[in-house]
Amino acid sequence: MFNKETKSRNADAPSASINIIGVGTDITGDVNSNGDIRIDGNIKGTILSKARVVIGASSVIKGDIEAQNADISGTVTGKITVTETLFLKGTAKVHGDVTVNKLVVESGAEFNGNCNMLSTKHIPADNTMQQHGRTAPKAIKTEADS
User: What is the pTM of this model?
Assistant: First the structure.
């Protein structure tokens, strides 16, 4: 009647769970999640997610964020690393450097820091662009070269 087989979950696999840290919750320490996480409270520490991190408009985060995707509406002071897309909503206030693949900044958002864009295709330093389907810009000859 009942199947006696048990299925084990891989602890490293992203989970379909959604985690919520509500308004009025203050956490000091690191937060790790395999699934999506929504934060409407305040955190002092690093936030690590293998999925999406959503920072609500009332949130204040003092620490680094690492995630696959992130939507930020609140205040973040720290380094943000997102392997796919970072959305800074109109109420976002970000103070720190970001490393992203794609960055979307809505009107009204504040961003103070440096941005490094991850490349999905690497172009070799020796400028062999033609090998990658691109044509290199032609050198301009000037009178000084003659």
Answer: 0.72
Q: What 8-state DSSP symbol labels residue 66?
A: E
Distance, CA of 43 to CA of 54 (rounded, Å):
13
Q: Of 104, 50, 113, 101, whose CA–CA distance to 76 is shortest?
A: 113
Interval 16-73: pLDDT, tens: 678 999 999 999 999 999 999 999 999 999 999 999 999 999 999 999 999 999 999 9
d(CA 71, CA 59): 12
In this predicted structure, the answer to whether residue 79 has a pLDDT above a threshold of 90 is yes
Q: What are phi and psi of 27, to 5 degrees?
A: -125, 130
**Rounded Cα distance, 39 and 43, in Å:** 9
Residues 6+ apart with CB under 8 A from 10: none
Contact 71, 54 (CB under 8 A): yes
Sign of CA dihedral 85, 80, 67, 89: negative
One-letter amino acid identity for 127?
Answer: N
The Cα-based distances of 75 to 62, 63, 69, 108, 124 in angstroms read 8, 11, 17, 13, 37
Tokens of 101: 């693949």
